[in-house]
Amino acid sequence: NPPDPSGSSGSESACEGSGLAALRRQLLSDCKQLNASELRQAWLDLHESWLTAKAAEIGITDGSGFTLVGVGGLGRRELVPHSDLDLMLLHDNKSDELVGRVADGLWYPLWDANVRLDHSVRTVSGALSVANADLIAALGMLDARHIAGDTELSTELISGARRQWRSAIRSRMDELVEMTSARWLRCGRIAQRAEPDLKSGRGGLRDVQLLDALGVAQLIDRRGMANPNMPGGSLDAAYLTLLDVRTELHRVSGRGRDELLAQFGDEVSAALGVGDRFALSRMLSGASRTIAYHAETGMRTAQNALPRRGISALVRRPRRRPLDEGVHEYDGEIVLAREAQPQSDPGLVLRVAAASASSGLPIGAATLSRLAESVPDLPTPWPREALDDLLVVLLAGPTTVNTIEALDRTGLWGRLLPEWDAVRDLPPRDVSHKWTVDRHIVETVVNAAPLTTRVARSDLLALGALLHDIGKGRGVDHCVFGAKLVAPIGERLGLSTQDIDTLSNMVRHHLLLPVTATRSDLNDPKTIESVTEALGGDAQLLELLHTLAEADSQATGPGVWSDWKASLMADLV
Fold it and tell me: Residue 334 forms beta bridges with which residues?
């Protein structure tokens, strides 16, 4: 029997919509005792029961030639308050008039209830054609789930979408990589943003859905990524953490937000029972680092798993290319040489890092895991070769970011610089800062690299950029405390006493020039005398601080470095 929604008038639709709206308001009002997971389940149950009842009311039943399919969060059973309700109405070539009546019977009550609705009406063949032409639609249909109506139509769509995805992945992988890279560039890393995008940021919810899609295509071992003993940690546990944070963000803000603004941090952290917004930030960063690690390695694994096509199929498989002692490049990654002995080679980590930073190639996941498990700590003081390799990493420019991140997420960077633990994932206290403290430091290093031609000692500028905020996160003046940390760090790196003193003064006074230039009268001789006295008349230190201040300002956030500030700084210097 075909559906007969003709009995639903506009007033009845509004009445039904107001009823659903009241149920939604009541649940949000009564859900304070529910945790994030329980709230998602209650929210899902509310909407799914309403949808199945409404579908039955207007005749969308098994064998009717109509079916209602959920995609997005509804399809994944992860419905979050204030997020879109993604629905697809399928039919087996019914008349436009009948399809219109059925669709109106579904959509209007939802609109009247102020539900954010993302909807479409298609035949199965039409939906698959859209998926074949639109990559985002294809990814979305992999989450499709039957809600109500003709189960045969739902099964045909779900199995067809997955079969089509597996057969087309060879030709779509380049587009998938390009789309993902563009999103990562646009949204940045969640782990290193002061106000991250939980959904689209690098290491966010979309990256897990990307890995699910690669698993459907049988290019990666998606289930294995749930193992907590994996090098990057359990992907599923990290995903649940982000999902809980997003759920509480929606509950606290009362809106469908994906960007975790600082103003909501304390309320979200309290709801999750993790302390304050700084504790929340660190928990979130840890989870997103795990997701980013799996996303990056999973994408490379998937690309390598695909058979080569065209001319590339005629080219011999890649060979190992030696880059340094024990370090090779193989198939677009930095790997260990077969003869490498990491258990007796403490300098190998920095040789691998230097090769990655200078070439821009990622370090292979297996290489990172092997290094983390077997490489001993460097002796104190470091051999000169190890310090040289560290400087190669610091002076490489933008590739420094991914190299340090790769070492840090596997514990290797913290072993090289134990003081990093205090600043890792530390959210900024100043709203002008765009990044977490650790990422701000790395950005300062990156910005300092092209400025090395302005100073006589590029090595001290790079090390000063790395250490300038190392004293943060201890509840004291970070300039004073950081300067004290420089001595043991410098001794560990094998620096001379004179260079350690210079570095200590760089850290101690790295804010002196910008603060003085923007807040003091530069025509007052006392201003010049105070700066000169603070720096002990050291012209080299003044040169280094001038350049470091520019790199530090550029790495802080939009508008912090300007022509006006640069002019004042130049006048003071």
Answer: 329, 363
